[in-house]
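During the reporting period the student researcher (J.K.) took over the structure-prediction task from the postdoctoral fellow and processed the backlog of single-chain submissions. One of the processed entries is reproduced below for the supervisory committee.
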Amino acid sequence: MRIVFMGTPEFALPSLSLLLDQFYTIPAVVTVPDKAQGRGQKTAFSPVKSFALDHGLEVLQPGSLKDSAFLARLAALNPDLIVVVAFRVLPKEVFSMPRLGTFNLHASLLPKYRGAAPINWAIINGEKETGVTTFFLQEAVDTGSVILQARVKIGPDETAGELHDKLAEVGTEIVLQTVRLVEAGKVRLHDQNDKEATRAPKIFKEDCRVDWRKSAVAIHNFVRGLSPVPGAWAMHNGRVIKLYRTRIAEGKGGRGEEGSVLRADGDELTLSTGDGAVSIVELQQEGRKKMGAAEFLRGYDLKVGELLQ
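J.K. obtained the following structure tokens:
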């Protein structure tokens, strides 16, 4: 079976690697165009492109998925199936091309968390469980008929980065199982219930500022749901401070304005919230490396009563 694989980030790599290991024919991979990154604006490849080049696979990088030259090349590859893992929204001209269809791996239990950031929003919203879903693509985003799902527990202190890695591994097996079902003609589809749908829109920098008026639990979930990227942040004396790990500080709230420092000594940096307090475990001053609270406090002057805003 000829499978064209479409993906961009590291989340997609385990699935692509396993399909190759199982001796499926991958005539090409499709990924995003190269981008200039960093201070030197050096050209950077997507993780999927780097992997594909290392394994001698053809790489297609269309600026537009409706580009006539791209569509012609894709048709010439004669794919039986397209597998999509963390890529872009596909037009009908693309997803309807293979004779066996196009399926996507999504990092949630659809119809919950439709959108670009399902892992982040599941943690921000305090979910105890999430998972992965494979589904056949339709024109409306993340609405297609479900093929397979797998459930995954979310730990109380688990970050988005940690959950990302866990889901990538679980998703790899679900992708392989889905390919085998499609190949054997044994797929049993389940329609999504749109009434149960929730949104997981893309998260921008301005969305990541901590609101200290919220509860300690909500702030803890917010920080870990954005860690390590895009990263929750607050301001102190005109400087951006990113927060990566917190813990709920039992019995240390109720004093001072929300966002005020309750303790800043040794290895403890505790701030007041709307209903209690949180201790910052790992953070990063703008222009510096990420560090624990003890190291941060040794090099940063932060006094009790001062505000992070």
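The committee noted the following: Residues 205-299 form a domain with the Methionyl-tRNA Fmet Formyltransferase; Chain A, domain 2 fold (CATH 3.10.25.10).
J.K. will present the remaining backlog at the next meeting.
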